[in-house]
Design goal:
113 residues; four-stranded mixed beta sheet; 4 helices
């Protein structure tokens, strides 16, 4: 488990928010699921998931690998949207810029469903 994931887990435990980690019964194995899979949270590392937050210097092999991951991410997100499941994605760079804002955003979404 990365520090990124651990901090979310610790936060949810502190706030007594019920969650399931890495639910393999759901497409893409979300990092966290809530309310029996009605809401899923994916924590995306910017490098591995091809975020455009900065210029990545990649050779063709890595560009291809990351492109495959990004394509899978899109397909998984579409599956959730088709099923009416709330999909939340948190980019690592956004989290690092303002952790509190990301936690509040997720808490707000959880309170609305």
């Amino acid at each position: 488990m990365s520090l990124f994931e651990k901090e979310f887990e610790d936060y949810f435990k502190k706030k007594k928010i019920k969650f399931k980690r890495n639910d393999r019964s759901l497409p893409g194995t979300p990092d966290f699921s809530f309310q029996n899979g009605a809401i899923v949270l994916f924590l995306h590392g910017c490098y591995w998931h091809g975020h455009n937050c900065k210029e990545w210097k990649l050779d063709n092999i890595w560009r291809s690998r990351i492109s495959v991951t990004a394509s899978k991410d899109i397909k998984i997100r579409e599956q959730y949207l088709e099923q009416g499941i709330k999909y939340i994605r948190c980019w690592e760079c956004e989290y690092k810029k303002n952790k509190d804002a990301q936690f509040k955003k997720i808490e707000y979404i959880l309170s609305r469903y």
